[in-house]
C-alpha cells in the first residue's frame, strides 16, 4: 500500500530552507529564520510542529528586517 501526502502529515509541510545557511550569534539561520534546534528537529517533527516552526521562524525574520 502506498502512502499519499494526505496520510503523511510531514509530507504536506515543505522545508522553509532557502539555501542561505548562516547562523547568527543566537544560532538562528539568517536565511530561513529557524533556530539550530529547529533545523535539527525538522526531519522528526510532525506537520503541526513544522507549521509552528515555520511561524516562529517568520516572526524572527520579521523582527530582524522590518518592512520599509
Automatic annotation (TrEMBL):
* Name of a matching Pfam family: DUF1289
- Give the InterPro entries listed for this entry: DUF1289
Going by the entry's taxonomy, the superkingdom of the source organism is recorded as: Bacteria
Matching PANTHER family: DUF1289 DOMAIN-CONTAINING PROTEIN
Q: What is this protein called?
A: DUF1289 domain-containing protein
- Source lineage: Bacteria, Pseudomonadati, Pseudomonadota, Gammaproteobacteria, Pseudomonadales
